[in-house]
Amino acid sequence: MKLPQHRYGRRLSYNDIIYNFFATIAGLTIFNFEFIKQAFKPPYEIAEIKRHMDELGVKTFGIVSITGFIIGLVLTMQSQPVMQRFGATDFLPAMVSLSVVRELAPVITALIFAGRVSSGIGAELGSMRVTEQIDAMEVSAINPFNYLVVTRVIATTMILPILTLYVIIIAILGAFLAIAITEPMSFQYYQASVVNSIEFGDFIPSIAKTFVFGFIVGIVGCYKGYTAEGGTEGVGRASTTSVVLASLLILIFDMVLVKISLWLWPTLS
Amino acid sequence: MADTQLIEIETLTKRFEDHVVLDNVSLDVERGENLVVFGRSGEGKSVLLKCIIGLLKPETGRVLIHGQNILELSVSRLNTVRKNIGFLFQGAALYDSMTVRENLSFPLKRHFPEMIQNDVDNKVRYTLDLVSLEEAIDKMPSELSGGMKKRIGLARSIITDPELMLYDEPTTGLDPITTKEISELILSLQKKLSMTSIAVTHDVMCAEIIADRAIFLKDAKVAYEGSIPELTASKDPFLKNFFSHEIINA
Questions:
Q1: Which of A118, A152, B2, B49 has the fewest CB neighbours in a 10 Å radius?
Q2: Where are any strands of DSSP class E within B96-206?
């Protein structure tokens, strides 16, 4: 796998910035093809994938719990006065749950995940690259791409949908708390409204896109870390640019995937 | 290629953009021989080692190991060759998310998947005993001193019983006493395990202990060749200057 080199330095010209932009796109594309090629090659590092899934799940569990709860709570607090003005308070559970399931939970969980995990992977692999640990694996006849990249990307792709489902539940509970403070609504009524308003079809595109977001988080973090150069400065750069690039790609792909899902499931619109 | 030769390097040229680091370098290493590669910083010593192991691809030339040109091998065949080569990195390159035990058992488990856990443990303990660091078995790399890291790195390189060892600055950054200890350890392991070795260094003390023969890289070429006493006794002004400074530093 031959990846394009980036240009680094204290003063980059516009040409260098444009060159780096296209080098990143080309590099990431080549890296993706390499992932597809290597993912089906033995040895299959199942134990390593499980270990990463455990680690990533534990790492992000706390922060996504808090974020999910606050999303539900704040969304309800913001929407309640508007709904009250139109006399539509009864539709509040449906509105909140649909917003959470279709858009907020997948995107916000993915962004939090990118901030926590993509930077971590970028820094970890970047530091392994600059301290020659990746070279050490290669000269020991161990495939570093398979062991370091494939395992992490599969783990992030598998764990993000699980985290998103969890965030959906937490956000809906948070929303109930906000309603219960001001409205005399029982949990049974709230639960029934939520269940009646969400269809199974709402979950399919929303969870399907989290697989894509999880893949983006993993592949971007691995790409930036694996190709890091220039000592500790390079490690820092790999960590920071991983988050920026992963977040940007999540939002771009969200836009594309929403359009595709509306085309595939016209009933959603 | 003669039967006694393990490595034959022919007209190797490596450049980074416009800078030629190795220019038509040719070199033979016999089985069981310990070769030291001298040179000033930035003269391409580490690049030479990385070309030998296939980490860097030269522009021209051939690197024959057991008669096979490693530059033309597929990844899987190159890996078969690499299984017989140990490489000690300048900074030891220990996997910092693994304990010493895991660092050593990692290549072992991958190269010999049929090995049972008990045998892996015994081999790890035996190898750590060779480098006199059995007590560090459950430590993390961050808990080790520079000298200990080198020893563990050495242990990890020899755990698969390679027939060729490549050392990239094995004593850089160590105090003279630890330098002597590491050099003597390298020599004793080479004798005990009958290995061939190439060591890149600018440490004369280390070279005096481990080398059978030395070459000196200068201006991207092999400029001088001979035994350590021959090189240190040379009347050549450049060598005289180099070794006088090195001996003072040592």
A1: B2
A2: 164-168, 196-200
